[in-house]
Amino acid sequence: MQPKTRWRRRKEARPGEIIDAALNLFVQHGFSATRLDDVAAEAGVSKGTVYLYFDNKESLFRAMVQELIVPVVAQAEEHAAQFQGTQTELIRMLVHSWWDNVGKTRLANMPKLMVSEAAHFPELARYYVDNVVKRARKLLEDALYKGIEQGEFESCDVKSAARILLSPLVFSVIWEKSLAPFDSDDYDIATYIALHLDIFFNGISLDSGVTEHV
Amino acid sequence: MQPKTRWRRRKEARPGEIIDAALNLFVQHGFSATRLDDVAAEAGVSKGTVYLYFDNKESLFRAMVQELIVPVVAQAEEHAAQFQGTQTELIRMLVHSWWDNVGKTRLANMPKLMVSEAAHFPELARYYVDNVVKRARKLLEDALYKGIEQGEFESCDVKSAARILLSPLVFSVIWEKSLAPFDSDDYDIATYIALHLDIFFNGISLDSGVTEHV
DNA sequence: CTAATTAATGACTCAATAGTCAGTAATAAA
DNA sequence: TTTATTACTGACTATTGAGTCATTAATTAG
To answer: How many CB atoms lie within 10 A of CB A205?
Structure first.
């Protein structure tokens, strides 16, 4: 069962394994507090090997972000494009699938990590905003526009409304991964999200009178 | 005009000046990326002087947090206690005064800083949650309870509702201090807050039907 | 089986910075 | 004016961790 060799040559598998190790440690300790020696150890290689596949610590960080999040956004866009139903139902579907694919997984750590590190990695921050945030917002904005056209929602400032819809979701994962462990009052996130959606849809339903902010 | 002396003895003023310098640099670069030499320089003293008044870098960080935020929370509590008017008006007042005293000032940097550093400073995180977050939530929860009793709002899960009310506000300052500089779509925060309050109050008004989450 | 290639290693260098402390100069006391 | 006190300095130490590279060993080619 013991391998005869001290190590194997596994050119194909290494980058993925290193990225995976990096994700675990970067989300746990942040960028600067993560030692590359530890990333290497977690990936089962030496530090030299990390430098064989990535130029430096920052480039590993970037690779990790790109690798992990873009597929999720793309999948959400496909789901939305194929969706049959009212815009209210579409938004509920997007929120719940975001929760299943991001909120409940280790990807839930990304928003806090990006917020914390944005100032140190401007190029990466721009990439994240363009490829994740803007695309996510656009899905919601499009649904809100259509919903207004189709008479599901009161006319209102759609760009603000999309942010209002998104904020409590993103904030909840940031909170969970930062201060929640120190908060003795716990709460049920499923109830929180359900109530948020109910208040929001009630708030923008046609009889609501939120027209002053068009 | 030139002072004859190379430096002055100013035992009373130093700690405050050092805390002030620390705030400017910690919020700009984060905790670990801030050099104590730079804090000292910004405060107009040498590094040795910083260690005369604070045990170490962490203790300076804690002093800064305590010094700056607790007074703001205490003031909000007083305002709320003295308030005459409906609970809807009270909540609107609290939100707007939070915006004036936190959102528009350099204190707006605190949420992002705490979220980023919480994992490295568990004791400080607990202090912040207990002395800032819980007290802020309590103000809103109390207003919502009273509003329900007095028939202003539909009965609902008050703890979740208070978080839903707070999230978009806190998130907006975190966003502004992190990724917003990389986001070309800008938006007007005043419009966003006004719309949030309108949607929220419409959403929980008596005719809304959000009763299922009691 | 032997030689050539290259994936992988880990001891090393180098830079950055938290924290120390012996010495200095401003102030107060005698 | 002289002496005692102490706020303040800044050069120093100790540590940490990013990035390098000469060497080693797994694999492939001949």
So the answer is: 18
Unique residue bearing structure tokens 């007074």: B71
Q: For position B210, what pLDDT does the model report?
A: 54
Interatomic CA distance for residues B171 and A176, integer angstroms? 13
Residues in chain B: 214
CATH for A61-213 is: 1.10.357.10
B14 touches strand D (CB under 7 A): yes
Backbone angles phi, psi at A156, to 5 degrees: -160, 180
The verdict on B202 touching A (C-beta cutoff 8 Å) is yes
Q: For B139-190, write each residue's pLDDT tens digit.
A: 999 999 999 999 999 999 999 999 999 999 999 999 999 999 999 998 999 9
Q: How is residue B153 written in tokens? A: 């709002």
For chain B residues 101-160, those near strand D by a CB cutoff of 7 A are: none
Cα gap A101→A95, rounded to integer Å: 10
Q: Which of B33, B170, B183 sits opposite A120 (nearest CB)?
A: B33
Q: Which of B131, B133, B191 is nearest to A210 (CA)?
A: B191
CATH 1.20.1440.170 assigned to domain A1-54? The reply is: no
Provide, rounded to the nearest whole percent, the portion of chain B with pLDDT above 90.
86
Contacts of A125 in chain B (CB under 8 A): 178-179, 181-182
Q: How far apart (Å, rounded) are the C-alpha atoms in residues A59 and B199?
A: 42
Dump pLDDT digits (tens) for A107-120: 999 999 999 999 99
Count the Cβ atoms, other than its own, within 10 Å of residue B37: 11
DSSP state of B85: S
Q: How many CB atoms lie within 10 A of CB B41?
A: 14
B68-213 fold: Tetracycline Repressor; domain 2 (1.10.357)
C-alpha–C-alpha distance, residues B103 and A113, integer Å: 22
Give mean pLDDT, residues A148-162: 96
Average pLDDT over residues A15-28: 94
Q: Record the tokens describing residue B135, joined without a space.
A: 């007290």
Q: Where are the domains of chain B?
A: 1-54, 68-213
